[in-house]
């Protein structure tokens, strides 16, 4: 980290610019935010000027605050941004600097790095422009000096999260935080001095405390807890805990300062290695990333399994790294020390879980151990807890819930900590315990609230000596243990997997689909790990409630026998559909537990009003816990009772009682009865039941809908994400009509904030959905384009898993743009295509990113480019700018584009359809026939409409080339316009040809084939003249014979000159072989094949 010395005081000072720019991903963690800034004396103005200042609003501003950034005194740029409620959400912090902010100092307690980054970008542009204009050596020297003086950092890192100085909480930069997430006011005899009234943190003060900066990334609210998704920070610990307890402390400020000082000594070494790093980086991208075949076998290894009331977790011990600690731990297990006694008594969320003693009188019979450190204390590691002395560790241990890489290192007075094991299975159990336990230490009189270990035993678990294979094995175990009761593993595009999903969809079971690629370079050793777990070598594979079911055959067999529904009910996979059915089909529903006194009181209150609710006793149901978990996701209430009236939760027992006392409960029940009809007799559901099909389904709440979106993004389930967010297919009915745009944005930020830009993309699409329901298509287009622009930023950096979502986004954008243009055309009274033209520009960017992607083959996005090409084709045809299609065709046919047969069949069919039409317009009929014929043969037989659209162009092209459609084909695809036309061409009946052309003229013009049909007139004449030749059987034919034939079929005379002209055209086009004698009015035809087959005639 870059730093600058504060001369004369011996403390480390940091420029805010350096803080905001030179930390990895610009995340800030301040060790001691409450340091008194007034204790540092003599701080001169020169250092003050280099800090970024936050200025509170004046009393005269009427609640409108502003955020001012002061740069170095010599800077030409002084940027002041006013934050008003009317500003776009992506440019301000919601609620801050406006009347809805509860406290002015809430806004002052944050570092707004995102806005400051934009200032730096502007300044860098100014400097680049200045440098470009330098012409003399002296000017260049002045410029470099000026640049050094301003201390511009290298690079422009993205900043997506703010760090709350006061409470060690992370807040999404566009998400409003509440008062309880900020620091508590400290006054009086507090150890943290705060003078001059309310404490306003400014960057000047932050600068003084910046020697405690750590560059570990904070975990945003709602972040994923997957092993591969977490990069975490250390949460500050409770400073009031006595030193008698064994603790795993967060590294002190001194340690961080020392680390920062050592970082300075490595700067030159890092700069020296920079060029080498670039070479390695280039080599990595040019080399083959396919890992070698897995030579190490999966085998079973003895591990330790802890059983709690919340579930189990398994620990792998490291005797080779901490032999004494592991030996002592094994002895304690053998003596049964950990069973029914010393459980988890300390919970520091996002940091650790600690247990193994303290709250019980049971003491370890073995001697204390010295510290053994050799491994970093990263997430999932188990460390020996100890007291102040280095040899005080014994029975107590802690599981690191997040990284704390400095805990095991000796620093200052701390001798470090021993890492002796790692959690390899059951991580979801520890996450659940961390959520359920109260934060901090439990007191001695709270021993009954600790999470005890019911059983601690040795078990055999799979592992592998290859690190990549081992990691993939643990990831698959985690996916089987968490999130969903039904897991389906299969390959993308697999027909059997699609059939399995349809079966579960029919039962309305909540499933999770995991796409497994048959490619070692995509997910190293994924197939091998899955085979080791399941013992099966074929896909797809279905798990229900962590139990292997098998593939499609087994699922179909279970469905036929009726056991599939039973398994789904036991697993809780039907909990979501059961809840939805209950609250949408009944006016009053109560989810309760039979032994709960609060539930009993709520039911008595409802009964006193004569209400007859549908009651679900969750403690008497096999799927009760699954239903309660879904209710928590749906209503944010984790307890019972949970009372629903007209499909909406009114809360629990206290809420029901409050509504009863105010008289509002009776009114709501009356309205519910009117809405749903009279309540029947009361019913109590204690066992799983077959969920009836909803006739009028209630729209899904946005929060529940976003839970599915979050799961799809977190699991990189591309197909599920595309299905969820598609506007044109609308598989999910989401309740957005009752929400304002501001509410939608706030909910999206809260649910999806951990996925950076995805929150903005999804928010834009949901806004578009709302505007579409309101028939405001111009506003829908604006919201959709905002989502497209943001997604293009994500698409540039992501791998190919986002390609299916790109396709959905592009398709929706084109459809919305067309509908918005229709709306604008109706208002203007003239045809308008402004929105479609705008959409075309953004689609071209998507095509460029996909087609020019240089990522390795396993992550390459080129296979998604053809779909974008097809959408651009449709736009160009709509805008009547077909000539622009030729550029796309050249790109597809170019050497840099992937092999055509590698693309999806649907994309290939669509491309060939449009390529054939384009070739037809360019009079390249053989190429047109080839393309359209490919589309016809590969189009799915069930898509009759698409096949008919292809035939509308393929039939006239083939007619021109002499191939007649069969009567069966014409009848099957309702091509009645070609029935009489085909017969007229075959027989050379010009009168019938003209009649067909007149009858279907409008249809041919609308289809764009009228001119092509006109060219078929020449084919009909060729067939007529061939009949004349066959009748005469001579090689010298008089023009009068042709004149007579035409008069016979048309009933109208024709001049010989016109006949001569027609024959000349037929000879020129190759339909006839011969020459004419103008003087003798004779046609001389070739003795060898005078009328060659039309199929041989060049277009």
TrEMBL record:
It holds the Pfam family Pro_isomerase. GO terms for cellular component: transcription export complex 2. Residues 909-1090 form the PCI domain. GO terms for biological process: poly(A)+ mRNA export from nucleus; post-transcriptional tethering of RNA polymerase II gene DNA at nuclear periphery; transcription elongation by RNA polymerase II. PROSITE patterns: CSA_PPIASE_2, GLUTAREDOXIN_1, GLUTAREDOXIN_2, PCI. CDD domains: GRX_GRXh_1_2_like. Residues 300-458 form the PPIase cyclophilin-type domain. InterPro entries: Csn12-like, Cyclophilin-like_dom_sf, Cyclophilin-type_PPIase_dom, GLR_AS, Glutaredoxin, Glutaredoxin_euk/vir, Glutaredoxin_subgr, PCI_dom. GO terms for molecular function: double-stranded DNA binding; peptidyl-prolyl cis-trans isomerase activity; RNA binding. Keywords: Disulfide bond, Electron transport, Redox-active center, Transport. Belongs to the CSN12 family. This is PCI domain-containing protein. It comes from Lagenidium giganteum.
């Amino acid at each position: 980290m870059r730093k600058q010395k504060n001369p004369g005081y011996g403390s480390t000072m940091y420029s805010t610019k350096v803080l905001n720019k030179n930390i990895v991903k610009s995340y800030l963690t301040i060790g001691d935010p409450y340091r008194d800034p007034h204790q540092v004396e003599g701080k001169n103005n020169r250092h003050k000027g280099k800090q970024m200042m936050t200025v509170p609003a004046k009393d005269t501003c009427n609640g409108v605050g502003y955020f001012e950034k002061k740069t170095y005194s010599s800077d030409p740029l002084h940027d002041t941004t006013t934050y008003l409620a009317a500003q776009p959400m992506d440019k301000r912090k919601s609620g801050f600097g406006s009347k809805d902010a509860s406290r002015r100092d809430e806004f002052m307690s944050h570092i707004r790095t995102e806005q400051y980054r934009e200032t730096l970008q502007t300044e860098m542009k100014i400097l680049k422009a200045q440098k470009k204009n330098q012409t003399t050596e002296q000017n260049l020297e002045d410029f470099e000096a000026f640049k050094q003086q301003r201390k511009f950092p290298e690079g422009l890192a993205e900043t997506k999260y703010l760090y709350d100085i006061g409470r060690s909480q992370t807040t999404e930069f566009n998400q409003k935080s509440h008062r309880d997430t900020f620091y508590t006011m400290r006054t009086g005899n507090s150890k943290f001095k705060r003078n001059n009234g309310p404490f306003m943190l400014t960057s000047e003060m932050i600068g003084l405390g910046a020697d405690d900066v750590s560059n570990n990334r904070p975990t945003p609210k709602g972040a994923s807890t997957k092993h591969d998704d977490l990069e975490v920070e250390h949460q500050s610990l409770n400073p009031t805990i006595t030193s008698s307890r064994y603790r795993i402390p967060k590294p002190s400020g001194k340690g961080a300062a020392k680390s920062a000082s050592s970082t300075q000594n490595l700067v030159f070494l890092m700069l020296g290695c920079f060029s080498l790093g670039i070479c390695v980086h280039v080599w990595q991208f040019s080399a083959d990333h396919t890992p070698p075949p897995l030579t190490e076998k999966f085998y079973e290894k003895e591990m330790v399994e802890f059983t709690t009331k919340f579930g189990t977790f398994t620990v792998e011990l490291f005797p080779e790294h901490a032999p004494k600690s592991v030996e002592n731990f094994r002895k304690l297990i053998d003596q049964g020390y950990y069973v029914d006694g010393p459980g988890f008594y300390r919970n520091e969320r996002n940091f650790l879980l600690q247990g193994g003693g303290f709250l019980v009188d049971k003491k370890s019979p073995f001697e204390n151990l010295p510290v053994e450190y050799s491994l970093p204390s990263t997430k999932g590691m188990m460390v020996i807890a100890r007291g102040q002395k280095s040899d005080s560790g014994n029975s107590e241990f802690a599981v690191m819930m997040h990284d704390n890489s400095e805990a095991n290192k000796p620093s200052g007075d701390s001798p470090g900590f021993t890492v002796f094991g790692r959690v390899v299975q059951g991580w979801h159990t520890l996450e659940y315990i961390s959520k359920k336990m109260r934060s901090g230490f439990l007191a001695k009189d709270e021993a009954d609230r600790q999470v005890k270990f019911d059983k601690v035993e040795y078990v055999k678990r799979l592992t592998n000596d290859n690190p990549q294979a081992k990691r993939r094995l643990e990831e698959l175990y985690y996916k089987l243990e968490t999130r969903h009761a039904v897991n389906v593993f299969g390959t993308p595009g697999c027909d059997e997997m699609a059939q399995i999903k349809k079966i579960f969809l029919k039962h309305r079971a909540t499933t999770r689909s995991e796409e497994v690629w048959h490619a070692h370079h995509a997910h190293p050793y994924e197939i091998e790990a899955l085979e080791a777990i399941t013992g099966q070598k074929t896909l797809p594979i279905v798990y229900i409630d962590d139990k292997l079911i098998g593939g499609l055959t087994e699922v179909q067999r279970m469905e036929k026998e009726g056991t599939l529904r039973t398994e789904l009910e036991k697993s809780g996979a039907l909990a979501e559909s059961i809840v939805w059915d209950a609250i949408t089909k009944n006016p009053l529903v109560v989810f309760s537990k039979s032994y709960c006194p609060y539930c009993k009181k709520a039911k008595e209150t409802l009964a006193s009003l004569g209400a007859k609710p549908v009651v679900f006793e969750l403690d008497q149901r096999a799927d009760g816990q699954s239903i309660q978990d879904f209710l928590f996701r749906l209503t944010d209430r984790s307890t019972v009772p949970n009372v629903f009236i007209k499909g909406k939760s009114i809360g629990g027992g206290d809420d029901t009682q409050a509504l009863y006392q105010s008289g509002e409960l009776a009114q709501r029940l009356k309205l519910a009865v009117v809405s749903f009809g009279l309540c029947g007799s009361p019913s109590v559901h204690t066992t799983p039941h077959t969920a009836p099909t909803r006739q009028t389904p209630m729209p899904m709440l946005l929060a529940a809908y976003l839970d599915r979106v979050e799961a799809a993004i977190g699991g990189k389930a591309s197909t599920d994400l595309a299905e969820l967010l598609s506007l044109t297919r609308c598989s999910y009915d989401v309740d957005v009509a009752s929400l304002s745009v501001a509410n939608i944005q706030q909910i999206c930020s809260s649910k999806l904030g951990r996925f950076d830009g995805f929150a903005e993309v999804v928010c834009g699409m949901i806004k578009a959905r709302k505007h579409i329901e309101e028939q405001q298509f111009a506003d829908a287009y604006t919201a959709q384009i905002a989502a497209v622009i943001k997604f293009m930023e994500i698409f540039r950096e992501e791998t190919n898993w986002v390609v299916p979502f790109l396709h959905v986004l592009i398709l929706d954008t084109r459809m919305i743009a067309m509908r918005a243009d229709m709306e604008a055309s109706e208002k203007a009274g003239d045809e308008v295509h402004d929105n479609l033209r705008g959409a075309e520009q953004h689609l071209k960017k998507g095509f460029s990113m996909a087609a020019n992607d240089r990522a390795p083959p396993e992550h390459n996005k080129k296979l998604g480019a053809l779909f974008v090409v097809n959408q651009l084709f449709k736009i160009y045809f709509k805008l009547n700018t077909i000539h622009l299609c030729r550029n796309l065709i050249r790109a597809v046919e170019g050497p840099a584009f992937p092999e055509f047969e590698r693309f999806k069949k649907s994309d290939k069919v669509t491309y060939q359809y449009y390529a054939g039409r384009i070739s037809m317009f360019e009079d390249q009929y053989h190429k047109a026939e080839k393309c359209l014929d490919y589309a016809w043969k590969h189009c799915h037989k069930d898509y009759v409409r698409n096949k008919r659209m292809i035939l509308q162009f393929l039939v006239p092209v083939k007619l021109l080339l002499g191939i007649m459609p069969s009567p069966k084909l014409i009848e099957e695809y309702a091509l009645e316009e070609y029935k009489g036309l085909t017969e007229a061409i075959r027989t050379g009946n010009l009168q019938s040809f003209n009649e067909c052309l007149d009858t279907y003229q409008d249809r041919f013009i609308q289809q764009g084939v009228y001119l092509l049909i006109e060219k078929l007139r020449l084919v009909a004449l060729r067939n007529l003249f061939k009949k004349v030749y066959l009748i005469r059987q001579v090689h010298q034919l008089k023009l009068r014979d042709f004149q007579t034939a035409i008069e016979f079929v048309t009933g109208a005379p024709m001049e010989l000159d016109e006949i001569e002209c027609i024959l000349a055209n037929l000879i020129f086009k190759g339909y006839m072989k011969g020459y004419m004698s103008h003087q003798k009015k004779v046609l001389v035809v070739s003795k060898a094949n005078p009328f060659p087959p039309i199929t041989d005639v060049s277009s």
